[in-house]
């Protein structure tokens, strides 16, 4: 069986990942260090993610705003932990004008140096918190529930497209509440929104849980994440939700008069997901023929490729395809109108077919002269590309039958991809009882070890640091302590031997 | 008649403009020089603009992409005119890390200076052109039709919210074509998209035309604009479309093999509109009670305010309002579901009523106990707030009658606002025949002179410079030469006395 990509997952997973991005026209290097160009197919997936997630963010009572790209240095100086966490990797604007450098080029104008340098936002807690301090006076002003879709910049040394880029696109929600309980409930509510979104729309099964202390967002009291299982067994943190307590409110003076007339600090939260999710979609659903996009987030769900031969009959084929496109576009699938494209670009039909397979369009329909004569279409499902004998599974069926079943087929593909992801996640998590077993599980040379699920005593301080050092030596991190645990059975912590209080997932990660 | 704003248009138009922004909760100063915070109601209007314009941009065959925020200095050095036009006002990133400054604060790390400074994009021709040079090899790759929704930064010295801010949000379309004719046609097609959008969605009548040579985009062969008439008689350039010829293609090496196998330079275009449009909406539709948002771009089209009195009957009022909200949300108006909000925030009904009037919600419905008892509602139309006797025009009508007519009422408000804008534009343009008349028209002390429409000979070079100096002395600019002129009648150019070739509009502008 020959595949459409130049490299298979098994041969070199990292090279395969890059080849999917290139062959599916998702993105490319921009020539600007660490920044990518997101091409139409990749950006189309992001637009679908935005639309579907934005609907959910609004349905839970949040409103969108927009805050400045630039943050004055002094804003960062107020929250010490936050600075420590971010100061190492920020782009700093120091000048506001260019002048000729005398060598035929340009340089920053020494006469146009900013009095206070500006940081390009790596995240917006500081600037949004400053706005909250203006907006919140009384308990009546709470809760404040806002969200922003924006670009942010973190000066990463090693970048990888979608997964870790200097500039990336995301949404960041920020809320302020009258009580810690309410803020904690908000933190978990948005984590649940992310879980439902990842599973329903991205067909990506995730584990929701709390991050250990050492993996908390700088300045947070508690950080929760959704963790997804990639096909190489590594974890992808696909979204986070932070309970910030009064840490940021205290640094930014977000105070309100409560019903009894006393001044109190607000409790705040923040939560975000980014274009990183697209990296997750690639590594969960891609195969050796390219990407496979879940129908809910596919820019085009059905692509019609007419098989033209520069013959007089071509016009009849195009007309037939146009009618079919209209019939499909009039359907509703998964709660929305079907997105059907007729691909009339000047290229060979086989090139176009494989182009759409690599892009991962859920259904590709080919129409040739024989199909038109018989009132048929030839249908390829991206999630089941090959027959058992290894040949391409292109099925001829009456056009009417396709139109009648297209919506159900899209729903079936969507749920099938989720089922596959659920199965893969479960199959790649192994419960282990002691440290020796963990070491053996992640020994050098073991391919695709997945994650392990172990008991721990939730150590803190120096004891936690020692644990982190031990797992770091195996290139591992604690992903999270899954929510909904019914309590830990009797065994000891695999690290400390002390009585365990919960189970945590440990694995390699992106 | 007492109005909701602290200042009237007549008393001080500039102060009135700021007060609308503050009182309607559209935006506020951020504390970061020249950057604003766009608040939910302002951002909601921008989201509506994005959705409606994006549909049109896609319907004309364009796809969305995303390009880097940062542009290396060297990219700018390639297109000389472009650099001259933008180099004076760009934010420059020179460092990628902060370190303690030894005085308890932070400073850019001298050890983390970038080898090549990065400019925060003021516009993306250079970085997108570089991508085009990779994408375009053959005539088969053309046209390339893409668009980007993004933030851009221009270091303006004097800023004014929405109209001129250091950072602003916009869309920028960029296309490459095989021929100059095709590129020119694209430039005009997108200008027409902007005109239709401004009139249909913003209810803002605009004049489409070509900018004079001195007002062209830096590096463009021709620049076209849509110009709108503000209530103070000033012009607002609300969108531009540029034919770039081969200027950028030459600087960025966008070449293709034509059907005969020869290498040719592509012709490119770019076009954009920004959050500036919201400033236009304010100054076209606002009045002394605040903003008046055209229904198509109103985040909420109908707002229901229950008049509660902390009495047992309150629950019945809320239930009645909930049912009404559902009935309205099930309607379709102007081609979309009606956006109806039930405002249950803890505040007095009169405060809420005036809050929504100031925000400019098209229809505000108040419901009190008497309305519930009679099966009625009290309806306020934002576009006709007062009766002839100067009292608030709140009309009691049966609830069923309101639901039956709400969609038609929204359409009527939308078209009424456009008609008013068309009338205002026409009434404020005066045709004049000679320079003395122009001088008299714009003499000091004349309030609201609007624009004048004059013949000119389309001078170039030094002759044009002289014309620009003359009108600059009167604080005027040439707005554009309207499209669709049927040729100029016999009279001479008001500036040069030479035979005129076309008519141009001249006025003061934002």
Automatic annotation (TrEMBL), chains A, B:
It catalyses: tRNA(Pro) + L-proline + ATP = L-prolyl-tRNA(Pro) + AMP + diphosphate. Keywords: Aminoacyl-tRNA synthetase, ATP-binding, Cytoplasm, Ligase, Nucleotide-binding, Protein biosynthesis. GO terms for molecular function: ATP binding; proline-tRNA ligase activity. It comes from the Bacteria. Residues 28-294 form the Aminoacyl-transfer RNA synthetases class-II family profile domain. Its EC number is 6.1.1.15. One of its GO terms (cellular component) is aminoacyl-tRNA synthetase multienzyme complex. PROSITE patterns: AA_TRNA_LIGASE_II. GO terms for biological process: prolyl-tRNA aminoacylation. It is found in: Cytoplasm. It is an enzyme of class 6 (ligase). Catalyzes the attachment of proline to tRNA(Pro) in a two-step reaction: proline is first activated by ATP to form Pro-AMP and then transferred to the acceptor end of tRNA(Pro). Consists of three domains: the N-terminal catalytic domain, the anticodon-binding domain and the C-terminal extension. Homodimer. Belongs to the class-II aminoacyl-tRNA synthetase family. ProS type 3 subfamily. This is Proline--tRNA ligase. It comes from Sphingomonas abaci. The gene is proS.
